Amino acid sequence: MVLTIPMINLIDNRYKPDYVSPPGETIEEILEEKGMTQSELAERMGRPKKTINEIIKGKAAITPETALQLELVLKIPANFWNNREQLYRDYLARQEENKRLKEKVAWLEKIPYQAMIKLGWIRNFNNKVEQLRELLDFFSVASPENLRDVWEKRLSVDFRKSENLDSDDGALIAWLQKGKIEAAKINCADYDPYQFKEVLQEIRLLTLESPEIFLSKIQSLCTETGVTFVLVPQLPKTRVGGAAYWLNSHTPLIQLSLRYKTNDHFWFNFFHEAGHILLHGKRDIFIETFEPKEFEEQPLERQKKEQEANQFAADFLIPPAEWQEFLLSFSGREYDITAFANRLKIASGIIVGRLQYEKVLHYSHFNQLKQKINWNIISDS
Q1: Which DSSP state fits 257?
Q2: What are phi and psi of 205, to 5 degrees?
Q3: What pTM did the predictor assign?
Q4: Using an 8 Å Cβ cutoff, are 136 and 142 in contact?
Q5: Rounded distance between C-alpha atoms, residue 198 and residue 356, angstroms
Q6: Who contacts 220 (Cβ-Cβ below 8 Å, separation ≥6)?
Q7: Alpha carbon 243 to chain centroid distance?
Q8: Interatomic CA distance for residues 262 and 367, integer angstroms
Q9: Cα separation of 358 and 199, whole Å?
Q10: Residue 252: which H helix or E strand, with range?
Q11: CA dist., res. 136 & res. 205, Å (int)
């Protein structure tokens, strides 16, 4: 007897049969070859004729006990029947899943999956159901509803105001999820807040270095103190500059996007998120959107925490007394800025950014002192 093997697809070592016949068809072929009826098989196995008939028709499953009986009667190992049955049931379950997912392919439009494909976060599929399954795999959830429920709790946002996530929510959650995926690749020491605060002084000195140097050093220094640091490019409609939250009870994460590609924004964002880690609890997830309206809509307690993180970053980069003294003597010259930066041992662009933010300078002035940071540099480093 020759047993036929179903055609399969192999994607990431996942066994995905195009078609699997019920094990009962193989039993029927063997019975025909042996000249044995279903009734005789039932007698030899000590099973009701109805049960044998249902197994052959695929209505009843082959249990481990039945597989052992088939081994004794038909002389074919029990593991063959067990594997055959599991393969068939997996196939039926996948067919049902495909039907379920087919009804949800419209959800794809809620996630910027084309941008994610372009960035290499997920693979591209022509089949919409397979593309949806790829996205669910990326998010580690079984359905779009599960994704909404998981992040609704994390972000303290009521996504049920609409039937599903809107595109802005989907883009933000995808960005945060990518951060978690990248963070999982980094082995961190146990978090030590005192050591982290000390190492921030070393990181502050890195503002004088080029991105090719400081990016890898930041991650290394943070890792040694138990803080995970990742850079993830923003997706369309995310409008996010950074985030800080705890991956678990002992590992905080700082995630930046480089929304504004200059060193003044980069360093302020980094120390802002560091401030959240040091000053605030483990339950909150802080997302910096730079949208005044969104900030004003946050609860007062949340606004207070954001202001505290802002103050921490500003004071850590430029001591308050030094800043006030500089403002009194600042004559609007480039030399004043570079001399002050050299004295503080920080990048001149940080001083320019602070002056622009406080409206001492127009946003078009002295931008040549800022350092550009782009993703090509990050990829190379």
Answers
A1: -
A2: -70, -20
A3: 0.81
A4: yes
A5: 29
A6: none
A7: 13
A8: 9
A9: 28
A10: strand 251-256
A11: 42
Which H, E and C letters describe 151-207, residue by residue?
Answer: HHHHHCCCHHHCCCCCHHHHHHHHHHHHHHHHHCCCCCCCCCHHHHHHHHHHHHHHH
Provide the pLDDT for residue 333.
95
Q: Where are the domains of the chain?
A: 8-102, 105-165, 188-380
Burial 313-344 (b: 16+ CB within 10 A, else e): bbebbbeeeebeebeeeeeeeeeebeebbeeb
Q: Residue 41: is it exposed, middle or buried by C-beta count within 10 angstroms (0-12/13-18/19+)?
A: buried
| CA gap 377, 29 in Å, rounded | 64
With a CB cutoff of 8 Å and minimum separation 6, the contacts of 56 are 22, 24, 25, 27, 28, 38
Question: Which residues lie closer than 8 Å to 326 by C-beta, 6 or more apart?
Answer: 336, 340
pLDDT at 158: 44
Burial environment of residue 173 by CB neighbours within 10 A (0 to 12, 13 to 18, 19 or more): buried
- As a whole number of angstroms, the distance between CA 230 and CA 242 comes to 10
Phi-psi region of 18 (alpha: psi -120 to 50; beta: other; left: phi over 0): alpha
Instruction: Record the tokens describing residue 213, joined without a space.
Output: 């140097």
**Where does 8-102 sit in CATH, by number?**
1.10.260.40
Contact 177, 169 (CB under 8 A): no
**Both tokens assigned to 226:** 């138990």
> Structure tokens of 249?
């009870």
Q: What's the DSSP call for residue 166?
A: -
Q: Which pLDDT tens digit goes with each residue over 239-268?
A: 888 999 999 889 999 999 888 789 999 999
